[in-house]
Amino acid sequence: MTLGIQFLWVIYPYLILVIFLIGLYYRYQTDQFGWTAKSSEMLEKKKLRWGSNLFHSGIMLVLFGHVGGLLIPKAWLVGIGISDHLYHTVAISLGSFAGILTLVGCLILLYRRLTDPRIRKTSSFGDMLSIILLTMIVVIGMAATLFNTTASSDFDYRETISPWIRGVLTFTPDGMLMAEVPIIFKIHVLLGLALFAVFPFTRLVHMLSMPITYLRRSYVLYRKRK
Predict the structure, then answer these.
(1) In angstroms, what CA-CA distances link 36 with 31, 40, 120, 125?
(2) Cα(58)–Cα(127) distance, rounded to whole angstroms?
(3) Rounded-to-integer distance, Cα 103 and Cα 108, Å
(4) CA of 145: how far to CAs of 92, 108, 193, in Å?
(5) Cα(34)–Cα(13) distance, integer angstroms
(6) What is the model's pTM?
(7) What is the DSSP string of 147-174?
(8) Listed residue (46, 71, 61) closest to 99, CA to CA
(9) pLDDT tens digits along 13-51
C-alpha cells in the first residue's frame, strides 16, 4: 500500500473523525447559544422558503439513499431477491430525483447568500463555506452518477466504496479497495468527509439539535381576561 493510499483512505477518515468530535465538544462548551441555524428569514423570505424546502427534502432522501446503498452489503440485497438491474434502476431514478431537489435548493440558497446585500453582510465565513462545499459535493456526486451511467462502466461502488466505508466504521479499513475507484468518486468521498470537519464550526450543527423535549412539554393555556 502506497503512502498516498494509506493517508487518504486509512488515516484521513479518522483525522476527520477526531476533528468532528473535538469540534462538537468545543462548540458545545463554548458556544451553546450559537448552536442554531441562525435563521435569516426576517431579512428575506421568498428565496429562503423555496431553497430551504427543496434542499431539506432532497438531502433527507440523499442521506437515506447513501445509508442504504453504502452500509447494506450487496450480498444481503441479492439474498432477498433484489437483482443488480433492479437496484441500479431504483438507485439512479430516485437518486437523480433527490439529487436534483438538493442541487436546486443549494443553488437557490447560494444565489440568495451571494446576491442579497443584507444576507451577504450577515453571512459568516462558515456560512459561505458550508453552502459552497455542499453544492460542490452534490454537483460532483451527480456527475459521478452520470459518468457511471453513460460511460458503460462496469464500476460498482458496492464492491469498493461500500466495503471500504464499512471497514472504516468498524475500524478495519482496507485502503486498497479505493485504489482503482474512478477519480470523480474519490473526490466526492473526500469532499464528503471534509464536510464533517467543518460541520462543528458552522450552522450545520443544528442538525444534531432535535427538539425532542418539545413533544412532552406541558401545554401552554391561554385564558380570556375577565
Answers:
(1) 10, 12, 18, 16
(2) 19
(3) 9
(4) 8, 22, 18
(5) 27
(6) 0.87
(7) HHHHTT----GGGTHHHHHHHHHTT---
(8) 61
(9) 999 999 999 999 999 999 888 888 777 888 888 999 999
Q: Where are the alpha helices (DSSP H) in the chain?
A: 3-6, 12-30, 46-71, 74-79, 84-115, 117-121, 125-150, 161-169, 183-198
The pLDDT-based confidence of 103 (bands split at 50, 70, 90) is very high
Alpha-carbon gap, residue 172 to 36, rounded angstroms = 35
List, in order, residues 6 or more apart from 161 with CB less than 8 Å away. 70, 177, 178, 181, 185, 189
pLDDT band at 210 (very low <50, low <70, confident <90, very high): low
Cα 214 versus chain centre, distance: 26
Q: Which residues, 6+ apart, have CB-to-CB distance to 134 below 8 Å?
A: 106, 195
